[in-house]
Design brief:
about 100 residues; mainly beta; four-stranded antiparallel sheet
Length: about 100
């Protein structure tokens, strides 16, 4: 059984027991989280939402909060002496999927 959920402007395919990294939720570790935007649920048959599946949710437990590896953003224009170096680390929340309610 799997489901497709939407959170943080992205979509994730999840099954029970999966560990996913989503955009930062602002919830502390070892707390429960419920995702209500379930776009699709598949067990023996497939239920597709319009836009979401009615009465479906995905429950999970927050494992940790963290920041991803740094990426370097470098802007450069030739012949003008212009260059700019910048770095970015995206915050995330690591969630373990406990149960899919369909």
């Amino acid at each position: 059984m799997y489901a497709i959920i939407a959170t943080g402007g992205k979509q994730y395919k999840v099954s029970e027991g999966d560990i996913i990294k989503v955009e930062k939720l602002g919830i502390d570790a070892d707390e429960k989280v419920t995702f209500d935007q379930v776009l699709l649920v598949s067990d023996s048959d497939v239920k597709v939402g319009n836009p979401t599946v009615a009465n479906a949710s995905v429950e999970g437990t927050v494992l940790s909060n963290g920041r991803a590896k740094k990426i370097i953003v470098y802007k450069y224009k030739r012949k003008t002496g212009y260059h700019k170096k910048n770095g970015h680390r995206q915050s995330y929340t690591e969630v373990k999927i406990d149960k899919i309610n369909a």
